[in-house]
Amino acid sequence: MIRLRTMRRWFTSVTVIAFGLAVLFSWSMIVSSKNSDDIKRLESHASPSNGKPYSMVKPTVTDLKEAADRIKELESRLQDLELRIPKRFPEVKFLTYKDRKRILITGGAGFVGSHLVDRLMMEGHEVIVVDNYFTGRKRNVEHWVGHENFELIHHDIVNPIFIEVDQIYHLASPASPPHYMYNPVKTIKTNTVGTINMLGLAKRVGARVLIASTSEVYGDPEVHPQPETYWGHVNPIGPRACYDEAKRVSETLAYSYNKQEKVEVRVARIFNTYGPRMHMNDGRVVSNFILQALTGDSITIYGSGEQTRSFQYVTDLVDGLIKLMNSNYSLPVNLGNPDEHTIKEFATIIHEMVGKKSTITHKDAMEDDPQRRKPDITRATTILGWTPVVPLEAGIKKTIQYFQGELQRSKHSERNLHEPSFYGFTSKADYEDL
Ligand SMILES: NC(=O)c1ccc[n+]([C@@H]2O[C@H](COP(=O)([O-])OP(=O)(O)OC[C@H]3O[C@@H](n4cnc5c(N)ncnc54)[C@H](O)[C@@H]3O)[C@@H](O)[C@H]2O)c1
């Protein structure tokens, strides 16, 4: 009985295995015939010689051209697909609805503006950039495009704009002599009509405005260093007047809106600033010298080189701007680095740091070129608790690296990024490796 049962079990198992093998065999036959059909179909379709396998065909010039065209088409499709992959953004701080501000930065695609964008984005605010790209570039802020807290608007502030914001950093204006002298009337319009538009917007929505003024309001100063109480020494019809006088009007407008319309205003008198993303061709001392040294051209000093300048690194300025905006102080505040050097000294420092064999040459002095420029930052230090912290050599090193990268750049896609930690440094150790 037991034997009979064992035999029946054995018979059932053999039948099941045989059936399984039969199924597997027929499936593999179907698949392999399908594959060979596919291969044949592909060959006859793709082969230029009516179905002959490729091994038997010698490609003609036309075939190669067709293949190259096809590769190009596929590459562009691949690029499209890559663009659809969600971008990775630096980890920004999370602010609750109560603490998060909606902040407009005019001129936010420019040198200073783009660093301010980075800092405010990292702090977790919503940032709206308005720029007409006269001297600014999308590339300076493209690493934020697509982020839920960021918006970029192509707009000329000479025309009004209607948006809802809590704070306005009004930075839009060409800043370097060749740029603001290129179209002097437009420079005046941007700093007068444009400022009226921003103050008007602030009045409508109850926002606070910070005006980016300049040390140029002091003209060619007769007082050293320049405190905010100094009224300046400006030539109203000189080549720099379109900028200097327009900025002076911009300040006057701010205080008139404050007095008449109760708009909350802050005025930053910014002194020479340098750092990554400054224009290569803006004709300013630092960019000129670095570029000339890197390309092996002679470093040009206009005049004797005994005239002095003091330069602040851009992250120091950004720090001061944010502190001023969030302070209770409404009179003008100088933001600059009082560490004063002669132009000759700058030329030597850059010459040595770049380490190329360029020479230093002298040309005639420029008209209305200020002989001394050094901020008195007592007000910023006592009222805002602000003082520049980045040493000259560390900042210059970072700027040289940026210019080197720009000179070597040969593709649009090489992003102009900075590591997020770059914006968050608080101690000396943090900026030492700048
Ligand atoms: N960088 C300095 O050393 C320095 C010194 C003193 C004052 N400032 C002031 O700081 C601000 C920023 O300077 P920067 O060095 O970043 O200059 P920048 O030229 O790099 O940036 C200015 C930005 O404003 C934009 N812009 C100009 N006109 C505009 C308009 N009509 N509408 C919209 N956008 C416009 C430009 O496209 C650019 O993006 C300026 O107001 C400048 O006067 C700068």
From TrEMBL:
Which pathway features in its UniProt record?
Nucleotide-sugar biosynthesis; UDP-alpha-D-xylose biosynthesis; UDP-alpha-D-xylose from UDP-alpha-D-glucuronate: step 1/1
Q: Which reaction does it catalyse?
A: UDP-alpha-D-glucuronate + H(+) = UDP-alpha-D-xylose + CO2
* GO terms, biological process: D-xylose metabolic process
- MF-aspect GO terms: NAD+ binding; UDP-glucuronate decarboxylase activity
Subcellular localization: Golgi apparatus, Golgi stack membrane
Give the NAD(P)-binding domain ranges.
104-399
One GO cellular component this record assigns the protein to is: Golgi cisterna membrane
Origin: domain of life? Eukaryota
The family classification in the record reads:
Belongs to the NAD(P)-dependent epimerase/dehydratase family. UDP-glucuronic acid decarboxylase subfamily.
Q: What is its main location?
A: Golgi
Task: Provide the protein name.
Answer: UDP-glucuronic acid decarboxylase 1
Q: Which organism is it from?
A: Halocaridina rubra (Hawaiian red shrimp)
Among InterPro entries, the record links this protein to: NAD(P)-bd_dom, NAD(P)-bd_dom_sf, UXS-like
Topology with respect to the bilayer: Single-pass type II membrane protein
Q: Which cofactor does it need?
A: NAD(+)
Q: Name one Pfam family in it.
A: GDP_Man_Dehyd
Keywords tagged on the record: Decarboxylase, Glycoprotein, Golgi apparatus, Lyase, Membrane, NAD, Signal-anchor, Transmembrane, Transmembrane helix
Look at the named UniProt entry and state the broad enzyme category this protein falls under. Answer: lyase
- E.C. no: 4.1.1.35
